[in-house]
Amino acid sequence: MNYIKDTNKKRVTVEVLKIMKQQKQKICCLTAYDALFARIFEEAGIDLILVGDSLANVFQGKETTLSVTLDEIIYHTKAVKKGANNTFIVADMPFMTYQITPDKAVKNAGKLLKETDCNAVKLEGCTTKIIQAIEYMNETGIPVMGHLGLTPQSINKFGNYKTRGIEKNEAKKIIDDAYKLEKAGVFAIVLEKIPSSLAKEISENISIPTIGIGAGNCCDGQILVCSDMLGLNIDFAPRFVRRYSELYDTVKNAVNNYSNDVRDTKFPNENESY
């Protein structure tokens, strides 16, 4: 069955994502933070939308994602859901909403699902407590997406955003963690900024989909931050981002034209007046 670029495509679910991996159909994912872009992405056939804590960078202009709150994620996820009701929507769990205890993690994840009607949550890392939280969420009926490699919520631990898994010991740990996450019950794993060979090895040896960002083309799907791939963020240009448009310049030129027309009394004209 062809799920991609099909106007009558089957609604994406956890099971559909697994089937797409089995049938070697790439999973197309983007981040979104509002109803307008979510609607566009759904109409364009995106399979999965992530409401990422990257909203701290995209919307709030902050350097890290650490300050994002659960209520902020809920607010943006509600908006995205309004614009893309038929797309599989995953909401990031913010820093310190799932790391403390499994009980607290399940409570916060449940709040996210109940108040936004999203389809799943995503969390970073693979500590003992996180594994316990994932297992508890699965028991409760909450689908969970994992995230390995570069984990932005751990920026203060790593001290930088360099590629992870280059060293042999760290690469082995990422592989081991992928198996642990799979066993704990995650339905997919985001692999961020790791060598393509490492992502290939993981993707070929686990049964659940891998979603790459800066991890080569052997992952089962790809995700980018929407403002990066649309060329709205001109200050961030890592090698793994391909700009499919240059909307920063497009929007700037449109605003310049508008302001010039207002100042020159060319807008509004008679046809635009009542």
Tell me the domain tally: 2
Instruction: Give the CATH H-level superfamily of the largest domain.
Output: Phosphoenolpyruvate-binding domains
The helix content, as a percent range, equals: 40-55%
Query: Quick one: CATH class of the largest domain?
Result: Alpha Beta
Mean pLDDT comes to 95
Structural class, by secondary structure, is alpha/beta
Please state roughly what percent of the residues sit in beta strands, choosing from under 5%, 5-15%, 15-25%, 25-35%, 35-45% or over 45%. 5-15%
User: What's the CATH architecture of the largest domain?
Assistant: Alpha-Beta Barrel
Radius of gyration: 20 Å
Please characterize this protein's 3D structure.
Helices cover 42% and strands 13% of the residues. β3 (88-92), α5 (102-116) and β4 (120-122) form a beta-alpha-beta unit. 42% of the residues are buried. The protein contains eleven helices and eight strands. With 274 residues, it is α/β, with parallel strands linked by helices. It folds into two domains: 14-243, Alpha-Beta Barrel (TIM Barrel), CATH 3.20.20; 246-274, no CATH class.
Quick summary of this structure?
α2 crosses α4 and α4 runs parallel beside α5.
Keyword list:
274 residues, TIM Barrel, globular, 11 helices, single chain, alpha/beta
Element layout with pairings:
Blueprint: H1 14-22, E1 27-31, H2 35-43, E2 48-51, H3 55-58, H4 70-83, E3 88-92, H5 102-116, E4 120-122, H6 128-140, E5 144-149, H7 155-158, H8 168-184, E6 188-192, H9 196-205, E7 210-213, E8 221-224, H10 226-229, H11 247-263
Parallel strand pairs: 1-2, 1-8, 2-3, 3-4, 4-5, 5-6, 6-7, 7-8
Helix pairs in contact: 2-4, 4-5, 5-6
